Amino acid sequence: MEFDLQKDLKSVLFSAETIQSRVKELAREIEESCQGEEITVISIINGAIIFTADLIRRVRLPVRLDCIRASSYGNETRPVHAPKIIDSVRLDVEGRHVLLVDDILDTGNTLRTVRNELMECSPASVRTCVLLDKKARRSVDFEADLVGFEIPDEFVVGYGLDFAERYRHLPCIGVLKEELQEL
User: Fold this and answer.
1) Largest Cα–Cα distance of the chain, in whole Å?
2) Confidence grade of residue 171 (pLDDT, cut at 50, 70, 90)
3) Please, which pLDDT band fits residue 73 given cuts at 50, 70 and 90?
4) Burial of 18 (0-12, 13-18, 19+ CB in 10 A)
5) Which residues have C-beta within 8 Å of that of residue 91, sequence separation ≥ 6?
6) Is 54 among the catalytic positions?
7) What's the pLDDT at 1?
8) Catalytic pick from 8, 102, 103, 106?
9) How far is CA 172 from CA 40, 45, 78, 83, 157, in A?
10) Which of 70, 71, 87, 132 could form a disulfide with 104 if both were Cys (CB 3.0 to 4.6 A apart)?
């Protein structure tokens, strides 16, 4: 049986082709800003795993990879609690150039929390790269260094973004139909 989960989308904001084109541009921007130096990429999972994988495959620099797990949404469409770091990085980032990668920057709380934790490890630098920026939801003073796309205040899924751990595998990014935004 074949499922077409794209039928659950009210609209598609970015096609798979558009996403891959922008990921390629972001990789080029990372290469230019790092000037040939090794970077340590820290991916906030689960959401950023697909974006991170595609991004680092396109970066032509030495890359070390680690992941950090943070939670604030649960099974809701809005954060239900302050961000909690559930599993931290294992790599030593002291004196290293770190690129923190996330799927979406909305309130800014998660990225700020994770960035602050990384700063306690004395890296040479920490830059942030997000696939999506939802400025309308910002509740703290935080901006990403690199942004794939700005989006409206809509609940989006696909390409790593989920609702209750569903839809992450969609190759596009779309707005989930409102009637499906409840469990």
Assistant:
1) 51
2) very high
3) low
4) middle
5) 40, 64, 66
6) no
7) 39
8) 106
9) 27, 18, 21, 26, 8
10) 132
22-31, 57-66, 67-76, 171-180: which has the minimum mean pLDDT?
A: 67-76
Mean pLDDT of 131-153: 96
Which residues make beta-bridge pairs with 68? Answer: 44
pLDDT greater than 80 at residue 26:
yes
Q: What is the pTM of this model?
A: 0.90
| HEC assignment per residue over the chain | CCCCHHHHEEEEEECHHHHHHHHHHHHHHHHHHHCCCCEEEEEEECCCHHHHHHHHHHCCCCEEEEEEEEECCCCCCCCCCCCEEEECCCCCCCCCEEEEEEEEECCCHHHHHHHHHHHCCCCCEEEEEEEEECHHHCCCCCCCCEEEEECCCCCEEECCECECCECCCCCCEEEECHHHCCC
Q: Give the domains, in start order, of the chain with CATH numbers.
A: 17-151 (3.40.50.2020)
Cβ atoms < 10 Å from Cβ of 44: 25
How do strand 9-14 and strand 125-133 relate by DSSP bridges? unpaired
Whether the pLDDT of residue 88 is over 90: the answer is no
Closest CA to 43 of 100, 107, 121: 100
